[in-house]
């Protein structure tokens, strides 16, 4: 078997590292302060971060591959190349969903980092499988060392970025992520040889390096645009020194529920609340015909509001009995209405039916 001579364009190698760093900074910044957002906003942020991180893995890989110098012409299968991008995005999305929609512990961070590390590996080797007119020959040492490095660096990146969620930790995590993607690619390439082949197995149309370069440029343009956009997060978060007002400072309302609506923070008195509904790791507070986002989980809301007279009528609902207008009881469950237009009824589960009946008696 005759191996081909391999070289790399140093400028494209350096560019691939920059792309990896920008992708890490963009994706990890997009997921900052999600606890202050609604569930829909969280889902959109996670989706954009998945595209930034997963797309950055793909872009870095193919910027590096554009810098690969072989003595023969070679092409890429468009279908396999697209699949490699989707793999990276989906694997990152799974990891971010675990981090932001489950209880975040050391175990979940390690699990998420492992998933992203495996995603980088899967993207790399699937992308390499798309090469036409030449075939990659791997060494066991190259595959094993790249796998270990990928998983360890990604666990480190997420451990740092999700430790305190400060700008500094996010930037440090982005550095670790960029190094992980870059090091895995070139460590895997160092353990890879290439041979010329005459047989072409096509799953989709072939694309040349020139066409691939256009796609990589477009994806990198989106990444850098996203980086400039999220860069305002760091600029806007720099603390400024302002003059302190003379006189007494108004204290924060005590005993009220901290909520948000349309970006503004409000404090609602429990007596004005109709009911509280669980919303993922957070809650929605209904006061009159308006709902507010609250950063308390339902367990925290239960601990604080039950002692104030609220009743737990369902594992996801707390009700203010003084606001109940109608209670409809069925055989083994019930329903509460508040007589306010636009406010949905609240279900009463079987396990909480007796407590609800006693409270409303």
Automatic annotation (TrEMBL):
<feature type="transmembrane region" description="Helical">
    <location>
        <begin position="12"/>
        <end position="32"/>
    </location>
</feature>
<dbReference type="InterPro" id="IPR012073">
    <property type="entry name" value="LytTR_MHYT"/>
</dbReference>
<dbReference type="GO" id="GO:0003677">
    <property type="term" value="F:DNA binding"/>
</dbReference>
<feature type="transmembrane region" description="Helical">
    <location>
        <begin position="44"/>
        <end position="68"/>
    </location>
</feature>
<feature type="transmembrane region" description="Helical">
    <location>
        <begin position="74"/>
        <end position="99"/>
    </location>
</feature>
<feature type="transmembrane region" description="Helical">
    <location>
        <begin position="106"/>
        <end position="126"/>
    </location>
</feature>
<keyword id="KW-0472">Membrane</keyword>
<dbReference type="InterPro" id="IPR005330">
    <property type="entry name" value="MHYT_dom"/>
</dbReference>
<feature type="domain" description="HTH LytTR-type">
    <location>
        <begin position="257"/>
        <end position="361"/>
    </location>
</feature>
<dbReference type="Pfam" id="PF03707">
    <property type="entry name" value="MHYT"/>
</dbReference>
<feature type="transmembrane region" description="Helical">
    <location>
        <begin position="138"/>
        <end position="158"/>
    </location>
</feature>
<feature type="domain" description="MHYT">
    <location>
        <begin position="8"/>
        <end position="195"/>
    </location>
</feature>
<dbReference type="GO" id="GO:0016020">
    <property type="term" value="C:membrane"/>
</dbReference>
<keyword id="KW-0812">Transmembrane</keyword>
<feature type="transmembrane region" description="Helical">
    <location>
        <begin position="170"/>
        <end position="191"/>
    </location>
</feature>
<feature type="transmembrane region" description="Helical">
    <location>
        <begin position="211"/>
        <end position="230"/>
    </location>
</feature>
<protein>
    <submittedName>
        <fullName>Carbon monoxide dehydrogenase</fullName>
    </submittedName>
</protein>
<keyword id="KW-1133">Transmembrane helix</keyword>
<dbReference type="InterPro" id="IPR007492">
    <property type="entry name" value="LytTR_DNA-bd_dom"/>
</dbReference>
<dbReference type="Pfam" id="PF04397">
    <property type="entry name" value="LytTR"/>
</dbReference>
